[in-house]
Each structure stands twice: as C-alpha cells, then as structure tokens.
C-alpha cells in the first residue's frame, strides 16, 4: 500500500485508510 502514495498522489492518505478500515469491517 505504501507504493500507492507515490503512484497515486491525487488520492489522499485518509482515503486509503478509509478503504482499509472498510475492508476490515467487511471481514
């Protein structure tokens, strides 16, 4: 996931955190 930062600078870090939290809730 660390590579997603430099690869997608347009996507804010909090968005990635939210995605991880959502996937965690899913499981």
Write a structural description:
The protein is an all-alpha fold and 27 residues long. Helices cover 67% and strands 0% of the residues. The chain has helices at residues 4-7, 13-26. The longest helix is centred in the C-terminal third of the chain and has 14 residues, at 13-26. It is rod-shaped.
Short summary:
Helices cover 67% and strands 0% of the residues. The protein has 27 residues and is mostly helical. The chain starts with a helix and ends with a helix.
List the SSEs and their pairings.
Blueprint: H1 4-7, H2 13-26
The quaternary structure here is: single chain
Provide the succession of SSEs: HH
Percentage of β-strand residues: under 5%
Helix content: 55-70%
User: What kind of sheet is the major sheet?
Assistant: none
Low-confidence stretches: none
- Annotation, overall tally of beta strands: 0
Which secondary-structure class do the elements indicate?
A: mainly alpha
How many helices? The count is: 2
Overall geometric form = rod-shaped
Mean pLDDT: 65
Task: Report the end-to-end length measured between terminal Cα atoms.
Answer: 19 Å
Radius of gyration: 10 Å
């Amino acid at each position: 996931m660390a590579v997603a930062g430099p690869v997608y600078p347009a996507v804010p870090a909090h968005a990635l955190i939210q995605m991880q939290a959502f996937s965690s809730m899913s499981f």
